[in-house]
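Q: I have 199 residues here and want to know how they pack in 3D. Can you give me a structure?
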Amino acid sequence: MIEKFRIEISRIFVAAIIIVIALSDSMWETRAPFVCAILFMIGCILVGIASLGRLWCSLYIAGYKTDSLVTEGPYSLCRNPLYFFSLIGAVGVGFASETLTLPVVLFLIFTIYYPFVIKSEEAELSNLHDAKFKTYFQNVPRFFPKLSNFKEPEEYIVKPAVFRKHIFDALWFIWLIGIMEILESLHELHVLPTIFKFY
């Protein structure tokens, strides 16, 4: 049930984060500018990893998400690689805010909310794929990748039209960093007020 509202909840959450960022600034900006540069660089690296990872996952599940049980590529490493890369991306966006507070908050929110989504989706997959999912469940970790499990086919049929629709979803962390840079420029031009300051 909860996975049906996951996208809507995620959009509301992203909008709330953008509002907070729009009205806040980093305490490091005036106290230690080099810290801002380091935090932003860490954020960009994590967002890059997350975006590539989400594209990789989308390549495998675009058009196959529930019709068949995908167990190869990133899905051979863990059962929820899309959410694993999403966590990396969320933390990356937090670091790109040039604060330490936001990545911690995003990490905590993610770890509180997404286990419910994952359990709900696993129950659905168990009903759809029964014995095959049970074997997959027993051999592949839920969240953190197990590199020794990796396997990929020599060929894989991709549905281009479906994958094309998934590209935007896979890259929204990059869009967020772009939005954050625009908001930072608006702060510097004194167009947006600064209500909150975070370390």
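Q: Anything worth noting?
A: The chain has eight helices and two strands. The chain has a mean pLDDT of 88.
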